[in-house]
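Entries read chain and fold; for instance:
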Amino acid sequence: MEKQVLFPMLTKDVESLPCFVTGIGMYYEENGVEREKGYSDYQWTYCLEGEGILKINGEVYTIKPGMAFFFRKDIPHVYEPTIKTWKTAWITFNGMQIESILDYMGIGNALVLNIEWMTEMRQRIKEIFYTLNVPLDRYERNIIGSGQLYNFLIFMDQNRRACQNENQIYERLRPVIRYMDTYYAQDITLEDLANQIGVTKYYLCRLFKEAYEHKPIDYLNKIRIKKAKEYLVMQEQVKIKEIGEAVGFKDSSYFCSKFKEYEGCSPLEFKRKYI
């Protein structure tokens, strides 16, 4: 198939829509893109044939046929072919409500996934291309194109959800748990945890609730209390306040209240059981 690229004319009325397409490409032969400051729009790219890599958020992903990747605007990234021919279909977009839509779906700064329904994926991109390329009334073309883009985003989110089963959720959360185990003594925010797997903090809470029946910060505090118990038994001369600080609780009163909440006794009472 011959390469096709389209960049719709963007007027003030288009830019006032909740979401709109800024560019679309079909059977596009990738030569490599490096954007140190990211891109001004959001982008989904689908691999049709060949193979390439995506470098983003400190990670490197191999992109093969049937896979797609996404990134939000202003996120630094590089993608380039690893063999002679790498053909993709891509769509760039923006809009006044895009951030809210992506946040609601739980899609973070970047995402790589396998597409479950590849034929439908291609068809949806073709339909958007056709709508924006035919001589319809401008108002009709913009409204239809916006609706098709919204449905495309829903479709991509459905693909993402279809790829997740219970085991995959645990696997997906593994980097977050590893981060907690390594940096529990530091001041960790919910956003820090969400960034480990490229999702929003709201979606991370949903994943944790489904997998562990706890909020992420509650789970982190459980790790801290576990570490505190080890300190209490092994470090006899260390003060309670210092132990709390060593495991990430900067306020000793909060440390003691959380310890009692989880263990049913104060840190000192726990210590006396073993010393």
Observations:
- Residues 4-162 form a domain with the Jelly Rolls fold (CATH 2.60.120.280).
- The longest helix spans residues 138-162.
- The chain has a mean pLDDT of 91.
- The chain has two domains: 4-162, 165-275.
